[in-house]
Amino acid sequence: MQIVISDSKTGKAYKIEGKDTEANVLFIGKRIGDAVDADILGLGGYELGITGGSDKEGMPMRKDMAGTARKRILITSPPGYRPKERGKRRRKSVRGNEISTEISQINVKIKEYGTKPIEELLVKEGEGKS
Question: What is the pTM for the complete model shown?
Answer without folding.
Answer: 0.84
